[in-house]
Amino acid sequence: MLVEINLLPKRERKSRFIPLLSIVVAVLFIVSAITFYFIVQRMEQQIEQLKTELDQTKALRIAEEEKQKTATNASVGVQLQEAIQWAEQYPIHTVALLHEFIERLPERGFLINVSYARDGAIQLTTQFDTTRESAAYLQALKDASFIADVKLTSLTATEGKTEEEGTMPRYIGQFSIQLNMEEWKKQQQGGGT
What we know:
Elements: H1 17-89, H2 94-103, E1 110-116, E2 121-128, H3 131-143, E3 147-162, E4 166-179, H4 181-190
Antiparallel strand pairs: 1-2, 2-4, 3-4
Transmembrane segments: 20-40
Coiled coil: 40-67
Protein name: Type IV pilus assembly protein PilN
């Protein structure tokens, strides 16, 4: 019988797991790096594209604002020209008109507000001590030849104070007046009241 004796140390098998794992990790790292690079490149392209679109939008907005300014200036110019033509065609002397309204007020009547429209529509806000004074003022306005129509649209009582009598109501009257433009012009040209 033969006996074999081996005095050389047995070779241990080298594990293939560690090199294989290193290769897999290296491949994953390379793939991840390439993917990350392409994603970054793509995002930079999108950012550049958005910047370009933003610049174009700003340029369009500025151009549109310039157009609107030009159109607004032209529109304002046209409106101003129309107002000048209207003023030349319909010279209403508002100071004289106010004088006529004030002249017809009773002794304790006051004009608070006057608004005038181009078509001769006038809104008056007045203050009186009594309702009788407001009725008298309405009649005085009706009797004026330069007034085509007049209405007392509202009359409200408010508290007013006087030194002698203490608290006394005041009456605020709203009048709607339509001016007879032709008659007013005639009266102004003739110098009559």
